[in-house]
Amino acid sequence: MTLPLSILDLAPVPDGTTSPEALQNIVSLARLGDELGYTRVWYAEHHGMPSIASSSPEVLIATAAANTRRIHVGSGGVMLPNHVPLRVVETYRTLNGLHPGRIDLGIGRAGGSDGRTLSALRSTDGSYFSHELAELLAFEEGTFPADHPFAPIAVVPEKVALPPIFLLGSSGASAAAAGQLGVGYSFAAHFSATPAAPAFAAYRAAFRPSAQFDRPHAILAVSALVAPSEEEARYLSSSQAVSWALFHSGDLRRLLAPEQASKWPLTPQQEAIVANQGKLWIVGDQQQVKATIEAQAEAAGADEVMVTTTAWSHAHRLRSYRLLADAFGLT
């Protein structure tokens, strides 16, 4: 069987473009994924980053779902510490009512930004994640004790279930919890150097069937860029490399064009950042990227691979996803 592939879209804002253009681009990518046979497209939640426009995944989800026919659309994810659990239940029930059977609810424990921005969001400490998740599920399932102050609350819209839940992780901390709850699990190998295999093994070992999932479903998220040649792919990936180095040096700016990035002078510290993080980026021609993704999926024990592609040109991003779909024979 063909390995299921999906798309993780951060709504990148390249240098020389505008945020409205980046937001419009999510529609063309979602439509392409729908046409090519990708399983799902998710939108990440990030705040306070000039190079990323995906601060409101639920708005992007509603827009993408309204402009596609088949593909699942969801959050990758809702950063629960930034939100009141009841509001999340209401929002994603509404989305699932509008687009039945096509919405996913990915939930993460991180804040998705720097400390100052998170304080403006009234974000809670990640240590409250288990409590917030339990509260969210209690609202959905109506399982508050009779004497709990939230027990009488009517959650609306009524008679609409939450979409399938996926817990997100980058270290394995959420893996066993995802299994015990009987939900899906997604591992962020696109930025985490922690091996995914132990997390997936813990998830499967702890898994208990639920109303949402009768079997485990593990998604491996990777960063990949495909071009007709390895040489071109590596040239285009210089945008991601330099932007990552600048970001982790405290220089927040939009994604640079490869013409600039390939000539950008990096300090020894920044070069070390790129050398370390670059090990996680899958860059090459169709067959090189396909072979690497298949090897990583097999090693991790993944049921599905979700791909995020960083390139300055939106046209090159679309081309990369086309080439990847062709390499894997998606339909």
Structure in a nutshell:
The protein is 42% helix and 15% strand. The chain is an alpha/beta fold and 331 residues long. The protein has an 8-stranded parallel beta barrel with strand order 1-2-3-4-5-6-7-9, surrounded by 8 helices.
Describe it for me?
The chain is α/β, with parallel strands linked by helices. The chain has one domain (5-228, 282-328): Alpha-Beta Barrel (TIM Barrel), CATH 3.20.20.30. The protein has 13 helices and nine strands. The chain has an eight-stranded parallel β-barrel, surrounded by eight helices. Helix 1 crosses helix 2. The longest helix has 18 residues, at 19-36. The radius of gyration is 20 Å and the shape is globular. The mean pLDDT is 94.
Number of domains: 1
Number of strands: 9
Computed Rg: 20 Å
Percent of residues in helices comes to: 40-55%
CATH fold field value: TIM Barrel
Q: List segments where confidence is low: pLDDT < 50 over at least 5 consecutive residues.
A: none
Task: Please tell me what the overall shape is.
Answer: globular
What is the element layout, followed by pairings?
Layout: E1 5-9, H1 19-36, E2 40-43, H2 57-66, E3 72-79, H3 85-98, E4 103-108, H4 115-120, H5 129-141, E5 165-169, H6 175-181, E6 184-188, H7 197-206, E7 218-226, H8 230-236, H9 238-247, H10 258-261, H11 268-277, E8 281-284, H12 286-300, E9 304-308, H13 314-328
Parallel strand pairs: 1-2, 1-9, 2-3, 3-4, 4-5, 5-6, 6-7, 7-8, 7-9
Provide tags for this entry.
15% strand; 13 helices; alpha/beta; TIM Barrel
